[in-house]
Predict the structure.
Amino acid sequence: MDVPPDFRPPPDLPAAGTTLPEPATGPDEAAPQPPAPSPDAITFEQIRERAYELWERNHRPEGFEIEFWLLAERELRKERDRRKAGEAPTAPRSDAQPT
């Protein structure tokens, strides 16, 4: 049975012999909040879905998870950049003749 790749980066594990910090327990020990993502940010879920689509389109080869992940990330960034370029207001050309 063919098991599809997970397309998740490995979790950050602490070095051997280190311990994880204790979670905050009181209201005055609020955990720091991660920064809010920008509206242009590419999410982990978007990359994972695109990587899976690429993997399937390429007949599900084994051992290429990282390549598909990086390709998916690159494609999504290019699409985002094209969208941003298309939305940017264009300044009138200075050599254009008035009508």
